[in-house]
UniProtKB/TrEMBL annotation:
Keyword Protein biosynthesis among record annotations: yes
Lineage of the species this protein comes from: Bacteria, Pseudomonadati, Spirochaetota, Spirochaetia, Leptospirales
Any single GO BP term: regulation of translational termination
GO terms for cellular component: cytosol
Binding site for GTP: D95, T96, P97, G98, H99, N149, K150, M151, D152
Family annotation (Pfam families): EF-G_D2, GTP_EFTU, RF3_C
UniProt-recorded Gene Ontology molecular function terms: GTP binding; GTPase activity; translation release factor activity, codon nonspecific; translation release factor activity, codon specific
Protein name: Peptide chain release factor 3
């Protein structure tokens, strides 16, 4: 490529990168994540959706049994990515499962995001699942925007909500807008930045047609717009806000020191557009991606690179194929590109790249940093794999958690053994649980490990639905596991509960933390790791 052509290509990548925002919504189940997603799509008019769409209507249309289970339990097990355009921006929304048992999958999805939107139920505040997800974002340095939902319902007092965010999550909450009334009195929001008032009409559709430009909270025109007592409390509250709460600082937000807070009602489509407009201004474009040993990857001046954060089997029964979801980190992706596959150390041609809309799929010909593409995966791609058109960058690795619940798995029908083997291999590849083999425990049966019981249930249902294999799971007494560096494996005393996962990484299982501590005391030369990767191991030694 000539120098001018190269410069031109980089300019395109730069412009496309700058207009992208890649984000995930985190919430405790029932806070309104699905509803907010649907409303956001209304503003964009979804152009592409990837993965299992969780819009309620589609949920109802989903036929497979484990999707039924999703409905029964009111949770979303699969995570999806969807793309939409709004006011010249391209938004990539990564949908994250909202149940704690699926934390591993959720964690990995969050890592593919540049910003997180934390949805809180105004009546419930900060709930357990939110805390867990919040911590992942914080550890990873992902800035967080807060949307306080269900303002049309009885709420906690607003100041106690802000205090809760600060005390429980340890991040300063800066309201960008302030509600006028709450619950049955909810009448609108005031934008602190430009002093515009958005009135809430309690009619279907909710949102006010146009904003009223006030001269400030004391503007006499407001007297006729709101009930006396609502306006009086609003004026008192805003005085406290302006006097006692600091201003928004972009720098502090990008460093996860503060979270800007918005208020609204997703189901009534109120406060969403205001939120979205602010969001586009403050959420960072996918400009840099963290490298493992410090530093950041420049998305514009580096050729194409990306990492696989999710693998999903049987997205569509008609196709019966597996899809690997890749987040583009740098450069331009073009269909047909030949890339270096970091883990396998070989070249792979990416000829089938897709975006999904429910069960339909569209070919993706090009993609830019921040975008998510689905690649047909004949077993070539595993979670965490890095692909690159040039030298494979050492992107910060995805966290791999040590499972806390274990069981042996057996197929109860000999006629289904072949599909059973295929099923466990493919589903383990999705990362929904860990599949181990062991010479010591399990009596020759595969050993499975997960973060929670529900993962086991889903695994069983899917083996039956998608592979026709009925199974039995026998829970084992282990509750603690840790990974071992390969060079320490020969030092492990005989009789220890040594297991190996499908990527040949070794782990030790213990019945309790106490037992693990005892083992470590007896065998101080063996390093017990929280993560299986070599890179993290060397960091720990330093
Ligand atoms: P989730 O994905 O976080 O689990 O929550 P989801 O959007 O499914 O919302 C959970 C429930 O809360 C839904 O009611 C939804 O309609 C309701 N909801 C969402 N936003 C608001 C809001 O701003 N105000 C009020 N009052 N309710 C809200 P549901 O009865 O469980 O389901 P549906 O029958 O309405 O679909």
């Amino acid at each position: 490529m000539s120098e001018t052509a190269l410069g031109q290509a980089q300019k395109t990548v730069e412009a496309e990168t700058k207009r992208r925002r890649t984000f995930a919504i985190i919430a405790h189940p029932d806070a309104g994540k699905t509803t907010l997603t649907e409303k956001l799509l209304l503003y964009g008019g979804a152009i592409q959706l990837a993965g299992a769409v969780k819009a309620r209507k589609n949920r109802k249309a989903a036929t497979s049994d484990w999707m039924e289970m999703e409905k029964e339990k009111g949770i979303s097990i699969t995570s999806a990515a969807l793309q939409f355009e709004y006011k010249g921006h391209v938004l990539n929304l990564l949908d994250t499962p909202g149940h704690e048992d699926f934390s591993e999958d959720t964690y990995r999805t969050l890592i593919a995001a540049d910003t997180a939107v934390m949805v809180l139920d105004a009546g419930k505040g900060v709930e357990p699942q939110t805390i867990k997800l919040f911590k992942v974002c914080r550890d990873r340095g992902i800035p967080i925007v807060t949307f306080v939902n269900k303002m049309d319902r009885p709420t906690k007092t607003l100041f106690s909500l802000l205090d809760e965010i600060e005390n429980v999550l340890g991040i300063t909450a800066i309201p960008m807008v302030w509600p006028i009334g709450t619950g049955v009195d909810f009448s609108g929001v005031y934008n602190r930045l430009d002093k515009k008032i958005y009135t809430y009409d309690k009619t279907p559709g909710g949102s006010s047609k146009s904003a009223f430009q006030s001269s400030g909270v004391d503007d006499p025109s407001l007297d006729s717009m709101f009930e006396d007592w609502v306006l009086k409390s609003f004026r008192e509250e805003i005085e406290l806000v302006e006097g006692g709460i600091g201003d928004f600082s972009l720098e502090a937000f990008l460093e996860s020191k503060i979270t800007p807070v918005f208020f609204g009602s997703a189901v009534n489509n109120f406060g969403i557009q205001l939120f979205l407009d602010h969001f586009l201004q403050i959420a960072p474009p996918p400009l840099y991606f963290p490298l493992d040993h410090g530093g950041k990857l420049d998305p514009v001046r580096t050729g194409f690179s990306g990492f696989v954060f999710k693998v999903q089997a049987n997205m569509n029964k008609a196709h019966r194929d597996r899809i690997a979801f890749l987040r583009v980190c740098s450069g331009k992706f073009e269909r047909g590109l030949t890339v270096n596959h970091g883990r396998l150390g070989k070249q792979v041609k990416l000829s089938s790249s897709f975006a999904f809309f429910g069960q339909d799929r569209n070919t993706v010909d090009e993609a830019f940093p921040g975008d998510i593409i689905g690649l047909v995966n004949p077993g070539t791609f595993a979670i965490g794999d890095i692909l690159s058109s040039g030298k494979v960058p050492d992107l910060k690795p995805l966290p791999v958690f040590a499972p806390e619940i274990f069981g042996t798995l057996s197929c109860t029908e000999t006629g289904s053994l072949k599909s059973f083997r295929k099923g466990i291999e493919q589903l383990a590849e999705e990362g929904i649980l860990h599949l181990f083999s062991s010479q010591v425990i399990g009596g020759g049966l595969p050993v499975i490990g997960a973060m929670g019981q529900l993962q086991f249930e889903v695994f069983r249902r899917r083996l039956l639905d998608e592979y026709g294999a009925p199974t039995n799971i026998n829970i084992l007494p282990y509750q603690v596991s840790c990974w071992l560096p390969e060079e320490d494996v020969p030092k492990v005393p005989t009789g220890s509960n040594l297991v190996q996962d499908s990527l040949k990484r070794s782990a030790l299982l213990f019945e309790s933390e106490w037992e693990k501590g005892y083992f470590q005391k007896k065998n101080p030369e063996i390093r017990l790791l929280d993560y299986p990767t070599q890179e993290i191991q060397s960091d720990e030694i330093e």
